[in-house]
Amino acid sequence: MLRQVVAVVGFSLMSIPQRLGASIVVVIGLAAVVGVLVSVFTMAGSLTGSLIAVGSSDRAIVLRSGASFEGESMLRLDTAPIVASAAGVARTSEGRGAVTANVVTAVSRPRRSNGTMRSLAVRGVGAENFVVRPEIEIVEGRKFTPGLREAIVGRSAQSEFEGLSVGEQVKLRDGVWTIVGVFTTGDATETELITDVDTLASAYGQSYVNSVTVRLETPESFGALKAAVDANPTLSVDVYREPDYYVQDAADLDDLFFFVTYVVCSIMAAGALVGALNTMYAAVSSRAVEIATLRALGFGAAGIVVAILVESLTLAALGAVAGSTISWLIFSGDSVSIGGGTGTLITTLAITPATLMTGLLWACGVGFIGALFPAVRAARLPLATALRAS
């Protein structure tokens, strides 16, 4: 039985060149599906991974009650001093609370790659920012001076956008800011321009801040901070562990990519499925003589069913390999940015084995369904009918 199946499968695969045109259509269709699937999943995984990597377990972020991200949060100017006196907050060497108020906005800048305008995040921070975020390292120039229109720029943003070298100027709403330094953090916050919070708020005429970031005494101090803030009747805020805040953002982004990917790929897969069905039905019809001969020689229906399924899965695998290869050549190791109301997140794309396996399984699923009905038809084809067709 096994030898019969192997023989029929081998014969079927060797006859693919006789149906080369139809087979290429199937391969191209599945390559397109897998290419889109792998590319979008790679982008989603890289961007959400970059967001999650930002959070630190010894930091917390305070937002207006009900706000889900900084851009929609508005806090009173006295929020940071109130939070700074709460339990669980780390202290600077001078004994002040390690907190920073944040104002977030954005400015349009031309990209180096093609000159198109994209949003660059601009963040105003307080005097204790470098204590709250010790990962910020100045690698070129110096820190900005509070009260002056000076800014430092992340290395990733400098690489992505034009006109951000030390000494160059960036026009914001109420004048120009001079770039005085370049910083690195090793995470997605390298996509920002950072300046003094009071100067930025004044330039934009804001009488509020968007958030307050807190350095905790220890990661376990979060409970004490939250209890103290919740008990203060003058505040109406929500407090998040920083990793939880970014995981929430990443989950929202991941859900969006998940929906878009599967809607688009399902439509494309439907087209590829039609192509696979047509190809496999045509293969069964054109091989009526072959099927009749094999059946007359004593080969069972099982071998024919397996042969059709293997042929379709082989075409599907070829399409998956082609689509994955194209995605890898175009996207792997490249930088991608996604813009929002408060700036652009930039990350390096990395295609993972899990993503490639997802693409392969998707293609094989389409190939299997595309061959299933033709295979059943071939198995049910009466021997007399096949001989008459010959």
Give short descriptive properties of this protein.
390 residues; alpha+beta; ten-stranded mixed sheet; two-stranded antiparallel sheet; 12 helices; 52% helix
DSSP E strands, number: 12
- N- and C-termini, Cα separation: 25 Å
- Coarse structural class: alpha+beta
Strand content: 15-25%
The outline comes out as elongated
Largest sheet: 10 strands, mixed
- Secondary-structure element sequence? HHEHEEHEEHEEEHEHEHHHEEHH
Descriptive report:
The protein has 390 residues and is α+β, with helices and mostly antiparallel strands. The protein folds into 2 domains: 2-52 and 249-389, no CATH class; 66-235, no CATH class. Helices cover 52% and strands 20% of the residues. It has helices spanning 2-14, 20-54, 79-84, 129-132, 155-160, 197-203, 222-231, 242-286, 288-296, 301-331, 353-380, 383-389, and strands spanning 59-64, 99-110, 117-125, 137-141, 150-154, 169-172, 175-184, 192-196, 211-215, 237-241, 335-340, 343-348. α2 packs antiparallel against α8 (242-286). 42% of the residues are buried.
Topology:
Elements: H1 2-14, H2 20-54, E1 59-64, H3 79-84, E2 99-110, E3 117-125, H4 129-132, E4 137-141, E5 150-154, H5 155-160, E6 169-172, E7 175-184, E8 192-196, H6 197-203, E9 211-215, H7 222-231, E10 237-241, H8 242-286, H9 288-296, H10 301-331, E11 335-340, E12 343-348, H11 353-380, H12 383-389
Helix pairs in contact: 1-10, 2-8, 2-10, 2-11, 8-11, 9-12, 10-11
Can you describe this structure in just a few lines?
This protein is of the alpha+beta class and 390 residues long. The chain has helices spanning 2-14, 20-54, 79-84, 129-132, 155-160, 197-203, 222-231, 242-286, 288-296, 301-331, 353-380, 383-389, and strands spanning 59-64, 99-110, 117-125, 137-141, 150-154, 169-172, 175-184, 192-196, 211-215, 237-241, 335-340, 343-348.
